[in-house]
Each structure stands twice: as C-alpha cells, then as structure tokens.
Write a structure and sequence with these properties.
The protein is 80% helix and 0% strand. The chain is an all-alpha fold and 271 residues long. Helix 3 (67-97) runs parallel beside helix 5 (155-182), helix 4 (108-146) runs antiparallel to helix 5 and helix 5 (155-182) packs antiparallel against helix 7. The chain is elongated, with a radius of gyration of 24 Å.
Length: 271
C-alpha cells in the first residue's frame, strides 16, 4: 500500500510540475473575462447602493439625531469601517507572506501575463471610477444643494467618504504590495509614479476634513466653484501618475514581448 501511495504521489507531483511548465510556456493573454467580471460586480454594488439611498434617504436621512438615522445609516458606517480596513490589512499581509522569494527567476511569459493582468484591472478600474464619480460624487453635491447639511454624516457621505474612498485606499494599497512582490522589475526598487498615485490619493483625507470643516463653520454654499472645493482639483491631479506607471509597464512589456517573439521564431525554425 505504501508503494502504491508513493507511486501515486510521484505521479501527481510529476503532473503538477508538467502543468506548471505548460503554464510557463503558454502564450499570455489579457484576462478580460475576470476584469469585466470584477467591473460587473462593482457596478452591481453601486446600483444596489443607489437603490438603498433612494429608498431610505428622504425618509430616514434628513435628521442625524433621529433614532432612524442611527439604524439605517450610522450602523452601515460602523460596519463599513470595521470591515474594510482590517480586511485590507489581512489581504496585504497575505500577499506579502506568500510572495515568491525567487521572483527574479520568473519565466518571461508568466511575467508578461502579470502585466496583462494589470492592464485588464486598469480597464475595469476605469469603468468603476467613471460610474462611482458620476453616481456618488455628483449625487453628494446635489444632495447638499437641496438639503441643508446638519452633520458630516449624511446619507451620501456614508457611501462616498466612508465606503467608496476607504475601498479605493485599501485597493490601492493591495495593488501596491502586489506589484512590488510579484513583478521582478519592482521587487528591488520602488515605482515612483505608482507611489505618487497612492500618496496623492491618500491626500483626499485632509482635503475632505478641510472641506467638511469649512462647510460646517463658515461656508454653507454648495457651489462646485466654492473655495473649499479647490483642493479637490489638486487631489485629482494624482491620477496623472497612472500614466507614468503605465509607461514603466509598457517599457518592460516591450522587452518581454521581444524575448517571447524570439522564442516563438526559434520554435518555428526548429519545427
């Protein structure tokens, strides 16, 4: 029995190694299905959130001191903050401790496939950011133009400042750790554009704090052009650094595609 089990283990190990070798030699592709699935899930969540806002904002979201506001809105805030940041920390830790200690030996095709994954996720991110900006940010401005704000915790803020932004912070942190542990080009050096993007996006925290302080104490007007909104423009400039990171990725992808092309040409000549 022991011999049979050992032979079976050896066969399974050989099969696993063969699969790994096949995956390493396979031509990488952009994971469009996964990317659009991620975008679809995020967009579906946005639709559900907007439905919740339309259902309960006017009935239970006008008075932050009411018991109903505590039930329908503040509970959500506490749950969001209690889940998002600890979960993000766990994911970042998992990515770090499961990193490949010999990532410099990564096969050319596997590395190229990871860059394709980045561009697939960037495509999904563009769709989600466009939807979130239109349905969260514009809805928040419209809400304040119609309803007199009585607190920083409004129905639109619960999902914009305490859900969408924390998810974005955590997502960027996870992506930063993944890039600097899974791509050989960034293992021994830091991507300055990506780091500037993360740092610039984090600056929305003091910008939001200043904005709410200004609106609460001395500036009730909700015009988009009001001075307390000017710093949001500077925060938005952080997204420009995405182009720098994309250029870094394209430069490395050019090298990798040349290697893969040479390998394919050699295979065709051998055949």
């Amino acid at each position: 029995m022991s011999t049979v089990m050992n032979d079976r283990d050896v066969a399974l190990q050989a099969k696993s190694q063969a699969k790994v070798a096949d995956d390493a030699n396979a031509m990488p592709k952009v994971p469009w299905l996964v990317s659009f699935a991620v975008a679809a899930v995020a967009l579906a969540a946005i639709v559900v959130i907007k439905g919740y806002q339309h259902a309960f904002s006017w009935n239970y979201g006008l008075d932050s001191a009411s018991p109903e506001f505590q039930i329908y809105w503040m509970r959500l805030l506490y749950i969001q903050l209690a889940v998002i940041f600890p979960l993000g920390g766990i994911v970042c830790a998992a990515i770090w401790f499961t990193r490949d200690r010999d990532v410099q030996q990564l096969s050319t095709r596997t590395e190229l496939g990871r860059y394709y994954t980045i561009f697939g996720m960037l495509t999904a991110l563009a769709l989600v950011v466009a939807a979130a900006a239109g349905l969260f940010v514009e809805a928040d401005a419209s809400w304040h133009q119609v309803v007199i704000r009585d607190t920083d915790f409004t129905p639109t803020h619960i999902f914009l400042f305490y859900l969408a932004l924390p998810v974005a912070f955590v997502g960027l942190a996870i992506a930063w750790v993944w890039v600097h542990t899974r791509l050989p080009s960034f293992v021994n050096r830091i991507s300055l554009p990506f780091s500037m993007l993360v740092g610039g996006f984090m600056m929305v925290l003091p910008v939001v704090a200043f904005n709410e302080w200004g609106h609460t104490f001395f500036y009730a007007e909700e015009l988009f052009s009001s001075p307390v909104h000017w710093f949001f423009v500077l925060f938005g400039f952080a997204f420009i650094f995405v182009s720098g990171f994309v250029l870094q990725c394209l430069d490395r992808m050019r090298e990798l595609t040349q290697i893969v092309s040479a390998e394919e040409m050699y295979k065709s000549m051998q055949a």
